[in-house]
Amino acid sequence: MQRLLRTLPVETYVLLLPALAFISTTQTYRIVCAITRNSLCDPESPLRHNLLFQSINTMILTIIALLGLYVLCAIVLRSRSHFSTIGKPLLRYGRSFLFVFGTLYLAILAHGLAIRLLFLSADRTRTIALSHMIMNADLKIFGFSPPFFLNDIIQSEVLSAWIVQSYLQLLLIAGCTAIVLLFRSTYLFRKYMLSYFIAFMISCPFWYTFPVLHPDYMYRANVLHIEIPEDIQHIVQTTHFLPAMTKQFDELAKIWVDSENRFLPISNFPSMHAALGIITAAVLIEMWLPFAIIVIPWLVLMLTGTMLLLQHYAVDVMLGIVIGCVALQCATTLLALEQRAFIDRYDILATPKLFAAHFQKSWQWVKGEILALFAPL
To answer: Could you tell me the residue ranges of all domains in the chain?
Structure first.
């Protein structure tokens, strides 16, 4: 057992095994729900089919196909009297590819399952009470509501467009960052992935304990059709929203709002946008310090956008920043501990190392061009 622990990377225990356990438990629960027909697995639920059938079935079929292909390659290659010059690298990198991207795939699936189950299990009464509590926390800490205050003071169409796009393009930027890191540095790629999923795992208990709807759905759109407290109603009614912002609110509502309130998007406290933004900025700056010139202004705009679009309260963003920093430190510590004992006997990390090695020269050229561009300044 000790030898097994020493020959498997930290992602095995932080991502792979928890994801497998969670997905297996969810699938078992689906079978039970199909018999008991409780509310969480109501066949009419707008999320149930996508959650428990399409995602899981696709995952199972994909994993089986990948494993079957790998076994087939191994049998064909091993049937020869000796490995060819192509056979050995194929098996080595094939094994590594399956582990690295299989682990990420399972972790992403578990991530999606957890979010959807969270939305489906949200209690309406509790969500209303805790949303009021978080809104009042904003008012007590700042003396005003930052999300609505930002909409009042930012009346420039150009500035608001920059802020909105900084927020909306976060996932695209995060995806591009992951690809760049995969080609640039195995260590930073692993740190980035670990940090994000650790931040998500830290956030899940908060979301379950403090189900909160963000200011747009809770107060501006009032999707629950509740009686809003007078002081909050006054803030909403006196806030001047730009027409472009109102249109953007409505576009975002199409993604998350269920007109019949069969599920509630309660993953607000803390803000994963804030956590992911902090993680992305920190890793990019660690990769290359001059990136700070671009990354820091983007981070400020993105964090502002989370509130300008009424997607988060200020306390959500503050806690998200803290969780992002904690996740980064956890990932750094885990990777440092791994270095003391881990021996990659099975070349599990061969694939990302191969990417990093092959694109090192390209990165040096890109860095040189960027430096030359800013040299006259």
So the answer is: 1-121, 124-377
